[in-house]
Specification:
Helices cover 36% and strands 16% of the residues. By secondary structure, it is α/β, with parallel strands linked by helices. The strands form two sheets. It has an eight-stranded mixed sheet with strand order 3-2-1-4-5-6-14-15, sandwiched between helices. A seven-stranded mixed sheet has the order 9-8-7-10-11-13-12, sandwiched between helices.
Length: 372
């Protein structure tokens, strides 16, 4: 199979969909790895690194899309890339379709088969291709939130850990999954007073057993959320419903009760955001203010640490990429129901229920798409 890896073109996206190690593995399995010139530079991988791995360097994205049987990326295809997709071509990347009707429409129009990293599952019910980026984003969230809290950036001028005689920042993390756990751990490590909210009692018990007094946890109700947000210096939104649009858990009305200059960090922005006032931003212009509250809503947070993120993502996606290339997508999905859960679009049909529900579109069962 010809596996194509174009340069990411989303603003300030420095990751790359295939590492040199992944290219070497593909070549060793008898496939051809086609990598766009300069695609890995943002993550610290030179064209020579790919050539040494056996990849072929291609000058333009147009050539990659025209030649490759499978396109491997990081971020969802941008409008110009979607125009280059074709019927029968396989796209393997993050999609986040639920809050993005235009992308969904374009993918359906293209006739391609699109498998989304974020909806591939595993035997334990986890999301193995989302988890590494959730870990990165969770660990970054307190870091960027601390920067947002600096007075020069419009924040309250609060130091996360305080100093002797001065209280630390109060941080509320909404969601106790992968993102929330890593965010709480790092925020607590910075010396903040951290409370994590979740609606799963088993999860709260796990967090208490593992982390003890490092941070507090509380059952998430509307009332508890409102009370904690009111007193918070920083709120980190870390809620995920796989494949679906994120629920809005902090309303605009709640902002007026918050401390002026408090920071909202919305890690769920890829799925539409979990704050009512969230809108996607970029690393070039990451924060904005609404009603005196600072919002950090960068839609590709892990892109800021591109080398770490690319290596972590590559480790997770490599086995799936090889299965798709070795067997073809139909056989690979038939053999692995967890990979089949990643199928979102095929031949002009939507195949993921949560996306169809969010966008009001008809959906077919992914198992039907397996039939030629």
């Amino acid at each position: 199979m010809k596996i194509g890896c174009p340069t990411e073109i989303k603003p300030q996206e420095f990751r790359v969909g295939m590492t040199p190690d992944a290219a070497r593995e593909a070549v060793n399995h008898g496939h051809q790895a086609l990598v766009q010139k300069g695609a890995g530079l943002g993550a610290g991988f030179s064209d020579d690194d790919y050539i040494a791995a056996g990849a072929v360097i291609i000058d333009t994205a147009e050539e990659i899309f025209a030649t490759a049987d499978m396109i491997v990326k990081v971020k969802e295809p941008q409008a110009v890339e979607r125009k280059m997709l074709r019927e029968g071509q396989l796209l393997f990347t993050y999609l986040h379709l639920a809050p993005d009707p235009q992308q969904t429409h374009d993918l359906l129009e293209s006739g391609c088969t699109a498998i989304a990293y974020e909806t591939v599952t595993d035997a334990s019910g986890g999301l193995p291709l989302l988890a590494p980026m959730s870990e990165v984003a969770g660990r970054l969230a307190p870091q960027v939130g601390a920067w947002t809290l600096q007075k020069a950036n419009g924040g309250r001028g609060i130091l996360m850990g305080g100093v002797p005689g001065v209280a630390p920042a109060k941080v509320v993390v909404i969601g106790g999954g992968v993102v929330g756990t890593h965010a709480a751990k790092i925020a607590a490590g910075m010396g903040a007073d951290v409370t994590i909210l979740d609606r799963s009692l088993p999860r709260l018990k796990y967090l208490d057993d593992v982390f003890g007094r490092n941070f507090k946890n509380q059952y998430s109700t509307a009332g508890a959320t409102a009370d904690l947000v009111r007193e918070a210096d920083m709120v980190i939104g870390a809620v995920l419903i796989p494949g679906a649009e994120a629920p809005k858990l902090v309303s605009r009305a709640m902002l007026s009760e918050m401390k002026p200059g408090a920071a909202l960090v919305d890690v769920a922005i890829d799925q539409g955001g979990c704050f009512e006032t969230s809108r996607a931003t970029t690393h070039a212009d990451p924060i904005y203010e609404v009603d005196g509250i600072m919002h950090y809503c960068v839609a590709n947070m892990p892109g800021a640490v591109a080398r770490t993120s690319t290596q972590a993502l590559g480790n997770a996606t490599l086995p799936f990429m090889l299965n798709l290339a070795n067997k073809g997508w139909r056989q690979a999905c038939e053999d692995d129901p967890h990979l089949l859960n990643g199928l979102n679009v095929h031949a002009g049909k939507l195949t993921y229920y949560a996306v169809g529900k969010a966008l009001g579109l008809d959906v077919i069962s992914p198992s039907l798409a397996l039939k030629p």
